[in-house]
Design a protein that fits this description.
The complex is a heterodimer of chains A (about 475) and B (about 200). In chain A, about 35% of the residues lie in helices and about 15% in strands. Chain A has about 475 residues and is an alpha/beta fold. In chain A, the strands form five sheets. Chain A has a five-stranded parallel sheet, with helices on both faces. Chain A has a five-stranded parallel sheet with strand order 17-16-15-18-19. In chain A, strands 11-10-9-12 form a four-stranded parallel sheet. In chain A, strand 9, helix 6 and strand 10 form a beta-alpha-beta unit. Chain B is α/β, with parallel strands linked by helices. Helix content of chain B is about 30%, strand content about 15%. Chain B is built from eight helices and eight strands. In chain B, the strands form two sheets. In chain B, strands 1-6-7-8 form a four-stranded antiparallel sheet, covered by helices on one side. Chain B has a four-stranded parallel sheet with strand order 2-3-4-5. Chain B is globular. The chains are: A alpha/beta (about 475), B alpha/beta (about 200). At the A-B interface, strand 1, helix 2, helix 3, helix 5 and strand 8 of A face helix 3, helix 4, helix 6, helix 7 and helix 8 of B.
Chain lengths: ~475, ~200
């Protein structure tokens, strides 16, 4: 019978059915970081258990690292305790740790792919909801809670229920100035923030075929914002080319065998899906959020929706969103003054994101009064960008070039909004208080749109600011 | 490892209305700078119920007797966003022992089940009815009958829903899967070998 990638990978990793009816699934790769793992190691110690497959877990530190402090101890004592705890847990359990001293530290979802740890046809788990990112390689990647981190450490398996699969086709050609970020914001807007409950999303169509691996990662990354626990793109020659030569990718004769095996996991052409959604690429325009969840989004040239024009079930959240965001229904979002601009995160903190923005910001200046920060997703991304001179382009334009980490995506480090500051952000969540201030406001958009906002000091259409012609 | 069979949860209820209540709202990220979950109770819904100057906002978690209620009622897509187990942990340490909502985000649902917190779905209309009952009588007792998937309050009965897997795990005292996962290392190892992971 023809099968989807999800069914093939799931099937290959089944250990058995548990008494609850859930599946015990083998987890090929486990990624950990400092925020959701220390309690799991504590639970292991309490139960007298050991890490069973230490070579299948990789660690990095990302959420709490300051991006403007080189030296330890960190001035934030709690953050300092967390990095030390991770260091200790990795050393005691023989777990590879991409620590700050290695030159390979960074956001867990940037590090996994760039080290070649993320591979097609595998199951991946990490105590972070944006683990869906790794689906870009044709892996089934789950964000998990800390008790499941414990389960994976102790057994390299976890209990899960199978998902349905929704195929999302985006066909045609994106117009200039429209990016993968706009594609996923548009998908979430169309299907809703809970539209994906019970599903894995399989992304395909000519737009995804044409996307680079980094563009695919941006889309898969935000799958969870649409309520789907994992999202993926079928592996193809781009996936293979990306992985070739990376540190943890197979070498020599193993490489050829791996490639054949990886490609065999791609969904069969005639496989059945539980649902199919078709989107035309030409209909997507640069998209920005206006509310307090990522589904509350409009095209930059639209006006903010009137509450009465929304479906009834969305009105309560819309009213709450307008109050919180201090925006007016019926008005344009374009022209709204911003205080902060943030380019980075596991959604848009990769080298191609910075290359693309740098192409356009050369010769422009960040508007006076706007704090604009650029945060590479990993030390390796930072190094490559610096070798290309991108850091200089950003700093010449008035952006701050920072060290690698999650930074202002969730503000567990010192990079935070203050009061009700409004931030144009390339990150993934615009929840209330997400960027560190209980009244701080976030508008999500593509990195180039963030740059346009930084330069004009307002929410802007990057196509106009940078004269991008359709 | 023997676990309590969670067949029913009984107690007063607290209604926190709204859809898409995300895990950043349940516990803001700045309170996750910790290496254990034990102290998280006081931070449940912290920014929703506390002004920046530390004074309290109007919120059901700030009001007696709702602040002592073990059963939380809310809207759709409850617990969306981050995978942080800190969210159900903070609710648990606050004193919440069951959540009734129109729907749940999946990671939150799984994390809560693993902690033995049943998350049961009910219709929006029924949740609003129960909210009306506990608003009129804050000490009204709600009985969440997990076994039979029913909610009882003030003589009224409402339907509740929960996926079969979680239902079976809760009522049979198998909600924390670790014991079962540890049972068959040999099979796990053979799967690892067959996939080239060993």
């Amino acid at each position: 019978m023809a099968k989807s990638l999800f069914q093939k990978v799931w099937g290959a990793h089944v250990v058995r059915t548990l008494s609850s009816g859930a599946t015990q699934l083998f987890i090929g790769t486990h990624l950990i970081h400092e925020v959701t793992s220390p309690q799991a190691f504590g639970m292991l110690r309490a139960l007298g258990l050991k890490v069973r497959y230490p070579h299948r877990t990789f660690a990095t530190v990302d959420h709490i690292v300051p991006t403007d402090e080189g030296e330890e101890p960190f001035s934030d004592k709690l953050a300092d305790a967390m990095i030390k705890e991770l260091r200790k847990n990795c050393a005691e359990n023989n777990i590879t740790f991409f620590d700050r001293s290695t030159g390979f530290q960074g956001i867990v979802h940037v590090v996994g792919p760039e080290q070649g740890i993320t591979q097609p046809g595998t199951t991946i788990a990490c105590g972070d909801s944006h683990t869906a990112t790794h689906g870009a390689f044709g892996a089934i990647a789950f964000g998990i809670g800390t008790s499941q981190v414990r389960d994976v450490l102790a057994t390299q398996t976890m209990a899960l229920e199978a998902l349905k699969v929704r195929r999302i086709n985006v066909d045609g050609k994106l117009t200039p100035g429209v990016y993968s970020k706009d594609v996923i914001l548009h998908i979430i807007r169309l299907l809703g923030v809970n539209g994906g409950l019970g599903y894995a999303y399989e992304y395909g169509g000519s737009v995804f075929d044409g996307f680079t691996m980094e563009e695919r990662m941006t889309v898969c990354n935000m799958t969870i914002e649409g309520g789907a626990r994992c999202g993926y793109v079928n592996p193809d020659e781009k996936t293979v080319a990306y992985l070739k030569g990376r540190k943890y990718a197979p070498k020599g004769a193993d490489w050829d065998k791996a490639v054949t095996r990886w490609l065999s996991f791609a969904s069969d052409k005639d496989c059945a899906y539980d649902d199919v959604v078709n989107i035309r690429a030409e209909t997507i325009r640069p998209t920005v959020t206006w509310g307090i969840n990522p589904g509350q989004a409009i095209f930059i040239d639209e006006t903010l929706p009137k509450v009465e024009d929304l479906p009834e079930r969305e009105r309560g959240t819309a009213i709450e969103a307008y109050q919180y965001m201090k925006l007016q229904p019926g008005k344009a979002v374009k022209g709204t003054p911003i205080d902060v601009a943030f380019i980075g995160s596991c959604t848009n903190g990769r080298i191609s994101d910075f290359q693309e923005v740098a192409k356009f910001v050369k010769g422009h200046k960040v508007k006076a009064g706007v704090k604009a920060i650029v945060v590479p997703g990993s030390q390796l991304v930072a190094k490559i960008a610096e070798e290309m001179g991108l850091d200089k382009i950003f700093t010449d334009a008035g952006f701050e070039w920072r060290a690698a980490g999650c930074s202002m995506c969730l503000a567990m480090n010192p990079d935070k909004l203050v009061g009700d500051q409004l931030c144009a952000s390339s990150s993934n969540r615009n929840f209330k208080g997400r960027q560190g201030s209980p009244t701080g406001r976030t508008i999500l958009m593509s990195p180039l749109m963030v740059a346009a906002a930084a330069i004009t000091g307002t929410i802007a259409d990057a196509r106009e600011v940078f004269s991008i012609k359709s | 490892m023997s676990l309590k069979k969670i067949t029913q949860v009984t107690g007063t209820g607290v209604y926190v209305p709204g859809d898409d209540i995300d895990t950043d709202r349940i516990i803001p990220a700045r309170f996750m700078k910790c290496v254990t979950f034990d102290g998280l109770g006081p931070y449940a819904f912290y920014d929703e119920r506390t002004q920046p100057d530390g004074s309290l906002k109007q919120h059901p978690f700030n009001e007696s007797p709702w602040n002592k209620a073990p059963i939380l009622l809310s809207g759709s897509n409850f617990g969306c966003g981050s995978s942080r187990e800190h969210a159900p942990q903070s609710l648990y340490h606050w004193g919440i022992r069951a959540v009734i909502a129109e729907s749940f985000a999946e990671i939150f649902f799984g994390n809560s089940t693993t902690l033995g917190i049943p998350c049961m779905k009910a219709s929006g209309a029924d949740i609003r009815k129960i909210a009306g009952l506990i608003s009129a009588d804050p000490i009204a007792v709600i009985t969440l009958d997990v076994s039979n998937r029913k909610i009882h309050c003030k003589g009224a009965e409402f339907d509740a829903h929960i996926a079969d897997g979680a239902h079976s795990a809760l009522v049979n005292g198998r909600w924390d899967a670790i014991a079962e996962l540890l049972e068959n290392n040999a099979t796990v190892d053979s799967v690892a070998v067959s996939l080239g992971y060993a």
